[in-house]
Amino acid sequence: MTVTLKGHIEVPADRLEQIRAGLVDHIRLTRAEPGCLRFDVTEDPAIAGRFNVAEAFTDSDAFRAHQARAQASDWARISAGIPRDYRVTGLTD
Length: 93
Known about the structure:
Number of domains: 1
Number of helices: 3
Mean pLDDT: 97
Strand content: 25-35%
Oligomer: single chain
CATH architecture: 2-Layer Sandwich
CATH class: Alpha Beta
Helix content: 25-40%
Low-confidence stretches: none
Number of strands: 4
Structural class: alpha+beta
């Protein structure tokens, strides 16, 4: 079953440039992961500092592998403490 994640992150103005720079590698690495069907992070044109996130992975194992890689990456350090509002569907035990 496909696993999807949709939501957003809220980036404070003083961290915008760091987040924008860090996203380049995070997006590239994630899209190269086995099982990644979609990974988009885009700045919201209407809400300053909001980045909309949309992900899709082939299954729960691929999604969990992504989460593990991301938590051990530079992205985790760069984005530490950034508020996130995500909804995940399709995740199974």
